[in-house]
């Protein structure tokens, strides 16, 4: 999510939905420019919305519709390598004025690596920031 955010710096509300060809489906959510983790880090656990190990096209479409209706993001990126036909926002039934940009990602590895690097960078910056107890 953090790497995708860096590619879209003008967007404060983003969703990244990933449906690999195995278990471990999920979503990254950026709300008002901040990563949203939810209660005990459970936000984005969209795997619980699917009855099977991997989502069908119809389930993915419902997840995109739900993310749009609840989060109203600027953009939604989705990764689903087994999907044969791209999903269109027109298929969701959401009025055009409220539709986010929809982007299909063809690979996720680079974004995952860049996101990990960004987490590390942010962690180091946080450690270097002076605290009130230790101003130097």
CATH topology: Nucleotidyltransferase, domain 5
* End-to-end gap: 33 Å
Sequence of strands across the biggest β-sheet: 3-2-1-4-5
Largest sheet: 5 strands, mixed
Write the CATH architecture name.
2-Layer Sandwich
Estimate the strand proportion.
15-25%
Cα-atom radius of gyration: 17 Å
Which class of secondary structure composition applies to the elements?
alpha/beta
Number of domains in the coordinates?
A: 1
Q: How would you name the oligomeric state of the polypeptide chains in this document?
A: single chain
How is this fold's topology laid out?
Layout: H1 2-7, E1 14-18, E2 26-31, E3 34-35, H2 57-71, E4 75-79, E5 101-105, H3 109-128
Parallel strand pairs: 1-4, 4-5
Antiparallel strand pairs: 1-2, 2-3
Descriptive notes:
It is a single chain. The chain has 136 residues and is α/β, with parallel strands linked by helices. It has a single domain (2-128), classed as Nucleotidyltransferase, domain 5. Helices cover 30% and strands 17% of the residues. The protein has helices spanning 2-7, 57-71, 109-128, and strands spanning 14-18, 26-31, 34-35, 75-79, 101-105. Strands 3-2-1-4-5 form a five-stranded mixed β-sheet.
Summary tags:
ATPase_NBD; 136 residues; 5 strands; single chain; 5-stranded mixed beta sheet; alpha/beta; Nucleotidyltransferase, domain 5; 17% strand
Describe the structure in brief:
InterPro entries: ATPase_NBD (IPR043129). With 136 residues, this protein is α/β, with parallel strands linked by helices.
């Amino acid at each position: 999510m953090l790497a995708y955010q860096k590619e879209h710096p003008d967007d404060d509300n983003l969703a990244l939905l990933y449906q690999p060809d195995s278990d471990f489906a999920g979503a990254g959510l950026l709300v008002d420019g901040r990563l949203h983790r939810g209660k005990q880090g459970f936000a984005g656990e969209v795997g619980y919305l699917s009855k099977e190990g991997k989502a069908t096209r119809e389930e993915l479409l419902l997840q995109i519709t739900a993310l749009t209706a609840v989060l109203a993001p600027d953009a939604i990126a989705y990764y689903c390598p087994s999907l044969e036909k791209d999903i269109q926002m027109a298929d969701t039934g959401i009025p055009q004025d409220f539709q986010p940009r929809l982007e299909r990602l063809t690979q996720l590895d680079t974004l995952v690596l860049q996101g990990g690097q960004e987490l590390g960078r942010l962690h180091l910056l946080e450690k270097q920031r002076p605290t009130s107890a230790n101003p130097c």
